[in-house]
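WARN retry 2 of 3 for item q-0093 after timeout on previous attempt; input resubmitted unchanged.
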Amino acid sequence: MKLNTKIEEELEGRIKGLEDFIAEKGVGSKQLRKAKKVQRDSNIALVVGGLLTITGLAIWALNRNNDDS
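OK item q-0093 returned
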């Protein structure tokens, strides 16, 4: 059993290395890098936009409460 587990781990490591190589140098790797960058940038923009919206709403709510008093 120990030998089978060791062989399986070795094969999985080699397959992972091959997949990484193909992702880095293979067909479409340039487009994949661009897509990852666009996804990262859009996620950052969504987070920043959400934080600005929440901050704006909080400031508005605080000012509204102060005007009512």
